[in-house]
Specification:
By secondary structure, the protein is an all-alpha fold. The protein has one domain. It is built from 3 helices and no strands. α1 runs antiparallel to α2 and α1 runs antiparallel to α3. The longest helix is centred in the first third of the chain and has 38 residues. The N and C termini lie close together (about 10 Å).
Length: about 100
């Protein structure tokens, strides 16, 4: 997946696995904040009798989608941070060993 001229050492493998898992966790945080803020905005807009909350939700939703494409399609998979680190470590170890 990552063409290199030399095999990855364990520190590089760990660093790359943590960076990739961190990218996925960043998307989870982004999605959680999106849900919390847009739920509050929807409550405010509907309680006032207007339905303006759809506009920030659509705009931000597009940003969340693009963030997700960048993280999930480029890196593949999903899970929580520790599980992600383990998965990336295993994947990178396989790549390093040519399996």
């Amino acid at each position: 997946m990552y063409p290199t001229s030399r095999p990855l050492v364990d520190d590089e493998l760990e660093s790359r696995a943590r960076r990739r898992a961190g990218a996925r966790m960043g998307w989870y945080v982004h999605a959680l904040v999106f849900l919390a803020v847009n739920t509050a905005l929807a409550f405010l807009s509907f309680s006032s009798g207007r339905h303006w909350a759809i506009y920030p939700a659509l705009g931000w939703g597009l940003g969340l989608l693009m963030h997700g494409v960048g993280v999930w399609i480029a890196l593949g998979g999903g899970g929580l941070h520790d599980r992600l680190v383990a998965q990336e470590r295993e994947r990178l170890t396989r790549d390093r060993n040519g399996l």
